[in-house]
Amino acid sequence: MADRTVENPGTDVPQMPEILERVLLYAIDEGKQKMEAGEDITPFTTLVVHESVFIETHPGNDAQECFNLAQHTVEGARGASAYAFCYDGYVETSEGVKDAIIAEGGIPGQESGYAIGLLYTIGSDGKPEFNENPSYIGKAPNFMDSLRDATEYPDADIDPKYMDSSEE
Q1: CB atoms within 10 A of CB 132
Q2: What is the pTM of this model?
Q3: CB–CB of 113/21 below 8 Å?
């Protein structure tokens, strides 16, 4: 899923909320584990609801359809405190185009979100070789921009599928 543009007006890494940083890193790690197991990454979201993390895949026929499916899921996630949307893509660097596992995410009520990426190359054995740490890519859309803080939603307003913590 490579047809996405994330703004990067500079190289300064902003201070982001801890919950968002954790869910972005969690999503990158999930994507990395899939690739290390020889699997393709189907675009997916991770949602933090109460103390649980829920993962939902968003297969589509093209990048825009995957994006739309993920956005639809996250926009309706009342009671979630953060999300990440993760996919296999690429970033343009000063050294050219590089493959990356990308995670974009946000928290309720913020105008924009953030994107991070874990660069990788495919080794001679056909297996991915990952950089040690993810890098900040830039600002990204925030699918939760119109949601209120998670604590403002009573449990009755939260989708029941997010109330079962067994998916953690």
Answers
A1: 6
A2: 0.86
A3: no
